[in-house]
């Protein structure tokens, strides 16, 4: 087991431990509030009862008073909370001694159940048929381009389909692009407990009774999608489609069209129109014109992931479609991924809200936070790293917003998981192997670019890819932070799921439940920030490697250019030999077509022109010429300095002058060796030459008048 897996398990254990502590504290608070409310009911009933003065009441009063004192101390000082075990045992021990306890306890039990209210109105029953699905497919017009893109071949073959071939005319088994399509559909009852409509195993889909074609995924999904609230006791419904087939999307488009603007959702799912290819929240919808948009809220997630082995992205997802043999061995298959998380609240509006925009008043509708609801989650991630809801049977979904935030937390944690894996892949791609410390060939390969520009291409792709990923992380954090404010978590947001009475006991308990989700979401957002910083650190490493590569390649190219210059110099020298010969032959060829051997003029002219020319070329190309010119430069410099400095001939002048604070006066020191003396010469910039100064210049912190600076000196 590698270290990354161990760290992941440790983080998971810490996370579940924190959740256990939070739930335990919440349970204690609920028990404490319930006991206090029950005590108040006891006191009120006893005061109004004529049996208060009964003799047996004194024992009961004494016993109940002790219990009341302990419970009030629990509320007053949270540091001394009683054990939850004592609260659980107390109801079993009190009834034999308190005749009035059973009815009072039943009232308190009902009160504790309704402290956190839940949805009590059922969903509308809906049933769809195959004929209706075909009619719906044919009714989708050509103007809905994004919907057509999402449905793909299902819409293209809509006229060829019939009832017998609608679920058998498309390949969804092994080897098809949709072999890993999965789904989860849950219905939530009035007790807030979710129930799976169809359970999925690791091997595939488990069909229901009479499901003879359980291998057909489209048929399995359709059997669950076509009936909504068939039992009549569901108040909410969660529909999750992961890597859905086009027919799954078509069935969802039909079954959810009464609750969502499905064309709008598909537009954000398959295109960048409106969201600019980044995660965005569409939650402030009270002032939309259409009723479907006013009652629905959704998040669109747009980021990137690594394609899983054997998986293929959807046709509308950005991806490098080159065949594997045309890709480099270290190529990372990265693709764009999309997800839609939407919530729709049923029923009629419960209120209105008005706002002034440019001297005009706009009215919006507010829907009941505890209305019947539908939650739709469409995930298109071709990496087979989805989070399943196998443990959701232990959760309680009190209303639609609570289920939406719980699913939103899962989406954010999945994004962190995908970003982490992508960062590991890119870091592995650009990190040099440790073997370079011992292999000189590998060092040269890393330091100097090859003919295919392998490392330049790699660093460019990795650096800019991490930059794009960080932009997506910023948009994801911004979508959460700008949407869910303090007023929202307190239940006082004017338009986004306000609580009917946030100051009541039920409102505070509901806020406490929501606070658990808030902490989970903020933890996921904090992990995103850590991932952003990790990506920036990786980008810094890539920048350093790229600069080293450019430096080494530049030196290599400079040496190659020098070698080419030497070769050109040799060719030029060779051409110089034929230049005078060509000149002489050309001159004689103007007047003479045939030169006789006895014509001495040609030989004399050839020798007279070629020999001086060759001597001149030898002088110019001789290495002694530049050496001679450079050797005369110091002598000329000493001569100029001798003329400008009036110090003795046996003195040594420093090359670095010293100036005062404002730069108006400059000194130069001359030191005589015999006898040892130090002479200062000043120059004010207005006259030529140096003059011996009687004043001592300001010394540097590391120097004294008795020591000359350790610099190159010239004799003047």
TrEMBL record:
Gene3D superfamilies referenced in this protein's UniProt entry, alphabetically: Magnesium transport protein CorA, transmembrane region
One Gene Ontology MF term: metal ion transmembrane transporter activity
Keyword Transmembrane helix tagged: yes
Polar residues compositional bias, start-end: 75-84, 104-115
Keywords: Membrane, Transmembrane, Transmembrane helix
Segments of this protein annotated with the region Disordered: 67-115
Superkingdom assignment: Eukaryota
InterPro entries: CorA_TM1_TM2, MgTranspt_CorA/ZnTranspt_ZntB
TM region(s), chain numbering: 570-590, 602-621
Topology within the bilayer: Multi-pass membrane protein
Entry GO terms, CC: membrane
Subcellular location: Membrane
Keyword match Oxidoreductase: no
Pfam families per UniProt: CorA
Official protein name in the record: Uncharacterized protein
Naturally occurring in which organism (per UniProt): Canariomyces notabilis
């Amino acid at each position: 087991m590698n270290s990354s897996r161990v760290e992941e398990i440790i983080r998971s254990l810490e996370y579940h431990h924190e959740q256990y502590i939070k739930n335990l504290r919440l349970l204690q608070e609920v028990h404490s509030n319930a006991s206090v409310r029950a005590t108040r009911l006891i006191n009120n009933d006893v005061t109004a009862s004529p049996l208060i003065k009964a003799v047996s009441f004194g024992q009961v009063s004494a016993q109940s008073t002790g219990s009341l004192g302990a419970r009030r101390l629990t509320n007053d000082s949270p540091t001394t909370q009683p054990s939850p075990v004592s609260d659980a045992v107390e109801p079993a021990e009190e009834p034999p001694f308190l005749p009035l306890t059973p009815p009072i306890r039943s009232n308190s039990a009902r009160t504790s159940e309704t402290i956190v209210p839940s949805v009590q109105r059922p969903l509308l029953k809906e049933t769809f048929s195959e004929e209706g699905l075909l009619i719906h497919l044919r009714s989708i017009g050509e103007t809905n381009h994004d919907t057509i893109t999402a449905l793909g071949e299902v819409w293209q073959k809509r006229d060829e389909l019939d009832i017998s071939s609608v679920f058998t005319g498309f390949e969804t088994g092994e080897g098809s692009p949709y072999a890993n399509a999965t789904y989860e559909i849950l219905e939530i009852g009035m007790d807030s407990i979710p129930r799976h409509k169809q359970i999925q195993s690791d091997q595939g889909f488990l069909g229901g009774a009479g499901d003879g074609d359980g291998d057909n995924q489209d048929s399995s999904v359709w059997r669950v999608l076509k009936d909504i609230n068939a039992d009549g006791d569901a108040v909410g419904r969660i529909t999750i489609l992961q890597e859905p087939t086009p027919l799954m999307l078509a069935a969802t488009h039909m079954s959810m069209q009464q609750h969502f603007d499905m064309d709008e959702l598909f537009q954000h799912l398959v295109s960048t129109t409106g969201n600019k290819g980044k995660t965005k929240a569409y939650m402030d919808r009270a002032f939309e014109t259409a009723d479907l948009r006013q009652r629905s809220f959704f998040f669109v997630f747009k980021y990137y992931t690594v394609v899983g082995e054997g998986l293929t992205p959807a046709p509308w997802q950005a991806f490098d479609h080159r065949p594997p043999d045309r890709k480099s061995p270290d190529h990372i298959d990265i693709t764009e991924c999309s997800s839609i998380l939407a919530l729709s609240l049923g029923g009629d509006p419960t209120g209105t809200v008005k706002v002034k925009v440019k001297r005009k008043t706009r009215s919006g509708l507010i829907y009941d936070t505890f209305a019947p609801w539908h939650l739709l989650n469409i995930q298109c991630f071709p990496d087979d790293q989805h989070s399943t809801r196998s443990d959701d049977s232990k959760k309680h979904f009190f209303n639609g917003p609570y289920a939406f935030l719980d699913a939103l937390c899962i989406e954010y944690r999945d994004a962190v998981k995908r970003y982490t894996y992508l960062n590991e892949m890119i870091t592995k791609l650009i990190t040099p192997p440790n073997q370079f410390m011992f292999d000189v060939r590998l060092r040269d390969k890393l330091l100097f670019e090859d003919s295919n520009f392998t490392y330049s291409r790699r660093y460019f792709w990795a650096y800019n890819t991490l930059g794009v990923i960080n932009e997506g992380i910023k948009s994801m954090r911004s979508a959460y932070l700008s949407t869910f404010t303090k007023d929202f978590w307190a239940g006082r947001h004017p338009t986004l799921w306000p609580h009917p009475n946030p100051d009541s006991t039920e409102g505070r308990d509901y806020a406490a439940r929501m606070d658990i989700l808030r902490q989970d979401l903020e933890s996921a957002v904090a992990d995103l920030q850590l991932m952003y910083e990790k990506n920036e650190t990786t980008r810094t490493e890539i920048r350093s490697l790229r600069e080293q590569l450019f430096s080494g390649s530049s030196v290599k190219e400079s040496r190659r250019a020098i070698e080419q210059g030497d070769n050109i110099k040799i060719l030029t020298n060779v051409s110089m030999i034929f230049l005078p010969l060509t000149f002489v032959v050309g001159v004689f060829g103007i007047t003479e077509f045939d030169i006789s051997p006895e014509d001495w003029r040609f030989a004399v002219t050839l020798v007279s022109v070629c020999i001086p020319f060759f001597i001149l070329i030898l002088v110019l190309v001789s290495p002694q010429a530049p050496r001679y010119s450079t050797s005369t430069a110091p002598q000329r410099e000493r001569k100029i300095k001798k003329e400008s400095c009036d110090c003795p001939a046996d003195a040594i002048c420093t090359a670095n002058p010293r100036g005062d604070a404002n730069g108006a006066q400059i000194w130069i020191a001359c030191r005589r060796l015999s006898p040892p003396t130090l002479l200062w010469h000043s120059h004010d910039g207005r006259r030529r030459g140096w003059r011996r100064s009687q004043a001592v210049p300001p010394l540097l912190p590391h120097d004294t008048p008795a020591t000359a600076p350790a610099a190159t000196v010239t004799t003047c």
